[in-house]
Specification:
This protein has 431 residues and is of the alpha+beta class. The protein is built from 10 helices and 12 strands. It is 54% helix and 18% strand. It is elongated, with a radius of gyration of 43 Å.
């Protein structure tokens, strides 16, 4: 019997968010600890190199005269004197002009190898201080000259034990901080992610419902089109009837796709193309267009006076959609009214259907995706996205879509948008 494999995709959303947050906190704490260690290391390196420079100054000044006269007795005494300063450094050396060691505080004997030392050769050939970093020490040295004459070189070796102690301290401090951050962050993440996960889950469910419903709605007309085309005979009248039905279904599919595109783009920065226009002129234009294309029984109520900054075409689209929605639900022969108004802060465009009366629950429901108040409304009469699209256009303007429904006055849909969405600088760029 095989063991169960761990599957990230099957974990609950709250667990995923908590694990992701905890991992991010752990990574941040590790990064901070690493940066702290690097900072300690750089600071220590700089300070130890400065200390080595100072010791080399002293060592060079003391060794210059004995090297010039090749006074080995003085070099021996100098070595003994420096050996007493051992707590400051590990060792100190003097090299002749060939790079051979002629004095070493670690060497008790006065006999040295006649073979040149590698580091000593580098020093006598260099004109600057040389630093060599090893795991346990810093080796530093420079040439000793008197005028243009090369006398030899000196070097000191300093312990890095203090650095190791500081790095261990920084690491331990970072681990403690990291553990505390992970514990605290995870606890906070558990509290926050619970509410966040619920919101994301709701958004995910809404999106899933949206896609499932859209897929179902598209499947229906496609099935109708395929079935009628497969059964279509050679009779011209039957062909015309079938093609008319196919065209009707394709128009409905086009409307659904267009509404879905509007909803998906409504939050994008370039969704609106704003301009300055007159509200009264737009209202008259809307009334004429709607009477010709959508609702002959449309009546103009009032029209606002003033100029606003908004997307003229999007507002026309939203208002025409409202008239179309109202006309679908209106009783036969019922007059639909259209009006506008400009207040100090907002421009209002409304559509009223006196025959449509909605309960409080229905007023909430109709703004949901694919909602339909009228039971049994034929699918071909609407995509179920009309009001969500109108609301998306209003909210993209920074406004809102309002509904007031009462038995004596019917239902009034109002698009309210701020008068001026642009700064003075932006207005100056408009035609």
């Amino acid at each position: 019997m095989g063991s169960k494999r761990w599957n990230w995709k099957k974990l609950p959303l709250a667990v995923k968010l908590t694990l992701t947050t905890a991992s991010a906190i752990a990574l941040t704490a590790s990064s901070i600890t690493w940066l702290s260690i690097r900072r300690e290391q750089k600071t220590f390196h700089r300070e130890l190199e400065q200390q080595a420079e100072l010791l080399l100054d002293i060592w060079e000044a003391a060794a210059a005269k004995p090297l010039y006269y090749l006074d080995f007795h003085s070099l021996s005494e100098l070595k003994i004197s420096l050996r007493r300063q051992r707590p400051i450094f590990i060792s100190a050396r003097v090299y002749d002009v060939r790079g051979e060691i002629i004095a070493d505080t670690k060497n008790e004997s006065s006999k040295y190898s006649l073979e040149p030392d590698r580091f000593g050769e580098q020093l006598v050939a260099s004109k600057t201080t040389i630093f060599e970093w090893h795991s346990d020490r810093l080796l530093a040295g420079r040439a000793v000259r008197l005028g243009r004459q090369q006398l030899g070189a000196v070097s000191v070796s300093l312990s890095t034990a203090a650095l190791q102690a500081k790095l261990l301290e920084a690491r331990d401090r970072g681990l403690i901080v990291g553990i505390m951050a992970i514990i605290g962050g995870t606890s906070m993440a558990l509290l926050l992610n619970h509410s966040v996960a619920q919101s994301l889950q709701a958004a995910y469910e809404s999106q899933r419902k949206f896609m499932n419903y859209a897929s179902h709605q598209l499947r229906t007309p496609i099935t109708i089109i395929r079935g009628h085309l497969e059964l279509m005979g050679d009779d011209p009248a039957e062909q015309r009837e079938t093609l008319a039905l196919v065209e009707k279904e394709l128009d409905w599919i086009g409307s659904l796709v267009n509404d879905m595109l509007v909803l998906s783009r409504a939050e994008l920065p370039n969704f609106l193309h704003r301009e300055i226009f007159d509200v009264g002129l737009l209202t008259e234009e809307l009334c004429a267009q709607v009477r010709a294309e959508v609702e002959p029984n449309l009546q103009l109520d009032t029209k606002g006076t003033g100029r606003i900054v908004a997307d003229r075409q999007r507002l026309k689209e939203a208002t025409i959609n409202l008239v179309g929605y109202a006309s679908q639900h209106a009783k036969k022969g019922e007059i639909i009214t259209l009006g506008s108004e400009v207040t100090k802060k907002e421009a209002l465009f409304w559509v009223r259907d006196r025959s449509l009366v909605l309960t409080a629950a229905e007023q909430q429901e109709i703004f949901n995706l694919f909602a339909s108040v009228a039971k049994g409304l034929p699918r071909s009469q609407g995509t179920g996205l009309v009001l969500p699209v109108v609301r998306a256009i209003a909210e993209a303007h920074g406004g809102r879509l309002e509904l007031v429904s009462q038995p004596d006055t019917g239902s009034k849909f109002t698009i309210a948008i701020p008068i001026d969405m642009l700064s003075a600088k932006e207005r100056g760029r408009l035609p």
